[in-house]
Amino acid sequence: MPNLNELKKKIVESQLWRSMFRHDYLDTPRNRVLQIMANVWLHLHPPKIRRHALRVRYTWCMGGITFLVFLVTVVTGVILMFYYRPVAEYAYADMKYLQHDVPFGMIMRNMHRWAAHAMVITIWLHMFRVFMTGSYKPPREFNWVVGVVLLTITLLLSFTGYLLPWDQLSIWAVTVGTNMARATPLLGSEGPFGEVVGVTSRYDARSFLLGGTLVGPPALLRFYVLHCILLPILAGLLMIVHFWRIRKDGGVSGPL
């Protein structure tokens, strides 16, 4: 049986562990300065930036643009929440009221909508740039995983927001989209190993998303909570981790 201390040492010294957790620094005056200068909370802007990180043709500024349009969706989304009720009887009427009666309501809704579309496009371009420049390689593989999770959350934000207008297009689009959840392994009634776990069409991943077997009022409320509370909070927290790790990993990676 291997020694626990040796096993712990192997885990701590592995590349996976080193990519997730930064190692401790010796308590020296220079390292104290580095800890302060590299701390996101104590020093928001890095004291120095590598020259290649300022080249638009290298970074495309896609990461910063993605964060900018995320802020636009948050601000406009909060404004839209003042005029929207996530209830089946009022949701569609509230959208029409917002469009045609609220001052600048059409502008706010269109800004929110097009910023959301832009965020999906820019985050894909950002991931493409990171992949093409090899910025996912050690020691940045953990931050690449964080970015992939942020990409998934962005797509979920777009999907959950699609139902909120509560018109025929959104209802049937979400019906088709959530039907895919039936094929989820272990969690879907029609997915692999679903019968082994014992899930049914009444208790599976799709029914969890919709709050039932059909797209109805419970689904509207659940998608509203996911779109306005849970997913934005998760995205914000992961963005903080993402920005922090960029600093800890030495800034934007250089050209190959």
Automatic annotation (TrEMBL):
Gene3D superfamilies documented for this protein: Cytochrome Bc1 Complex, Chain C
Single Gene Ontology MF annotation: electron transfer activity
One Gene Ontology term, aspect cellular component: membrane
InterPro entries: Cyt_b/b6_N, Cytb/b6-like_sf, Di-haem_cyt_TM
Protein name: Cytochrome B6
GO biological process, one term: respiratory electron transport chain
PANTHER family: CYTOCHROME B
Coiled coil start-end: none
Domain of life of the organism encoding this protein: Bacteria
Lineage: Bacteria, Candidatus Methylomirabilota, Candidatus Methylomirabilia, Candidatus Methylomirabilales, Candidatus Methylomirabilaceae
Membrane spanning stretches: 58-84, 114-132, 144-164, 224-244
Keyword Phosphoprotein: no
Location of the Cytochrome b/b6 N-terminal region profile domain: 22-255
Swiss-Prot/TrEMBL keywords: Membrane, Transmembrane, Transmembrane helix
Membrane in keyword set: yes
